[in-house]
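Complex 182.
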Amino acid sequence: MLKNSLKLLTSLTLALFIVGQSSSQDADKQLDISAELFKCLTDMARAGSGAFFVDNVLGDLDATLVVANSETGGSYPPGSVIALVPTEAMVKHETGWNPATNDWEFFELNVSEAGSEINVRGTTSVVNRFGGNCFDCHKLATPQWDLVCGTDHGCAPLPIPRETIVNIQNTDPRCVRPGGAE
Ligand code: HEC
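Predicted structure with heme C bound:
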């Protein structure tokens, strides 16, 4: 009886250990990402034939732009930040942080004139405000695009037309207009 309980306890502990392992990220390879790093979209660099915006929180914007503007794809360098609309972004941590998502972390933000707030962040379970799971759509990009959808990389399409995306990009409340008004 006692022996059986011990056995059960051992396998339970082992199962918990395995679950813990598979869902954890390597803390040593995690960049320190806080809400202030998410800026006004149009203050970021335009990339991907103008489709989306990029930045690099480690200061290596050039390396991010090389991949973002490549016609054959590539692996984005650590520190890369990508956004299509103000409320959603992807950030690349150091190599090995979370191999299942190519080290990308997905963010869902609240934005206002006061700046950005992180609403949800994570790897494979972040859902946007339309109920769509970021990773489930982005993982459909063919491998050379490093989970970036662009306009023709094989992802599930967004439920909104491009004109609407452009309108949303141009009305980011975090952008201070010249003269300070608005
Ligand atoms: C229904 C599928 C779908 C869901 C859900 C989704 N995306 Fe996307 N995402 C796309 C597509 C398709 C594009 C490219 C659209 C375009 O450029 O016209 C895109 C573009 C992007 C881009 C610009 C870079 C790129 O991949 O082209 C970022 C960053 C992004 N999404 C982040 C997110 C985040 C973060 C979430 C979750 C909070 C999310 N997405 C949820 C399909 C999706």
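Residues 51-52, 82-84, 88-90, 106-108, 126, 128, 132-134, 137-138, 148-151, 155-158, 162, 165 surround heme C (CB under 6 Å).
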